[in-house]
Amino acid sequence: xMQLATISTVFIDIGRGLREGFFxxxxxxxxxxLGFSLxxxxxxxxxxxxxxxxLGNHRIGAVARASGYGMVSSSCSYAASAMSKSLFAKGADxxxxxxxxFASTNLVVELGxxxxxxLGWQFAAAEFVGGPxxxxxxxxxxxxxxxxxxxxxxxKRIRGEQGExxxxxxxxxxxGVSAEREAQLETTSMSEKFKSPAAWSxxxxxxxxxxxxxxxxxxxxxxxxxxxxxxxxxxxxNALFLHGHGFWTSAENALVGPLIxxxxxxxSIGNVPLAAALWSGGISFGGVVAFIFADLISMPLILxxxxxxxxxxxxxxxxxxxxxxxxxxxxxxGIFSGLGLIPSRRTFTITAAHFSWNYTTYLxxxxxLGAVGxxxxxxxxxxxxxxxxxxxxxxxxxxxxxxxxxxxATFAGDEYYFCxxxxxxxFEANPERYANGATSDGMESSTTxxxxxxxxxxxxxxxxxxxxxxxxxxxxHDVWFCNVGC
Length: 486
Prior knowledge:
Number of helices: 20
Strand order of the largest sheet: 1-2
Structural class: mainly alpha
Number of strands: 8
Order of helices and strands: HHHHHHHHHHHHHHHHHHEEEEHHEEEE
């Protein structure tokens, strides 16, 4: 009987945790849709042409550019690590490449929106205050830590692997986009992009692909946070974090926060719900900020760093990242404490354990309908002329630019592009599974060839040259139209 009672208690606790996690998700569903949608717009509308050529050192200008480029990139920690590796391989300064990675995961809009809803505006503001602090610290210390033969060996290691796999072949790898079309895309003004259905369909594809790619991290984050919030007793947190020792409490909490991130195996936006549970458990403001910043030293990413850069450079990376994240969290707490902005309310509770007609429900209905529209636009992007120069990673379903995809592979005569080496390795282990279009969102897994489709230059829609309603020759180039009016 005792065993049955124990088992029953365990299942009840798990059920409570899952319920807490679900309603935590319900509180932030509209924010996730808004954040991913805005991120998709930024990624599709902001050109990253010549990005690598402008990051050759870690002076003030290069640091600012690396931060800006990171802010307009995907917030996924895995994608950010792969892109930073690509920048380094193409000649970017290693410190600047790491700054790009930091900005990509810590200065992005979707993270701020979710923090605003789940933790409050003070934590959302702390992201954009502490993020620059962390980047400045990394820029100052990176020049000393990331130097010497260890960096040179890592660069040779990466370039050797890329040569072996035939990656990054330059602009000739821009499949499905002619030189003229590529130049057109790079020179298109922002106002024209806002009027282009093709550009909006590309933005939708980015949003859907990023959400699909991060689905596991989000699920893990909400489930773990729900369990921690409902199952772990308060005395367990009190034993982990110091209390009542002034500065030493803040320092210890800021040092412990990143260590929890290492063992949590949760990264990107998925660690925000867990941060809310930690805040409720008693960790300091700076400790929460340091924990959120520390998604780049979660265990899966440490293993990736070791594979990419080798053990010696990875040890330096993780050590410096840990110190920078902890110090940035502590400094951020000092700034907010001095301004009297640290929240006094600590108890983290879901506003309702059931569905009710309130502003959250109304927002969720509106934004979930909007999410359906975004998904439809992404699914039908070829109808609007979108997709040129982009490919869908067949493993994780992330949308990547073909010109700067971190990895690529060839199977059965077709080219496939990936957000990171880990996705390429999964593909190469079982290519038949992924080559058959096994992407979770159903979008095409390779780029559309110009032999199969052309873009109406007037309306931006995709047309089949064989069945085009009209055709003209302009300055020696064939141009097809969707109708005679165009």
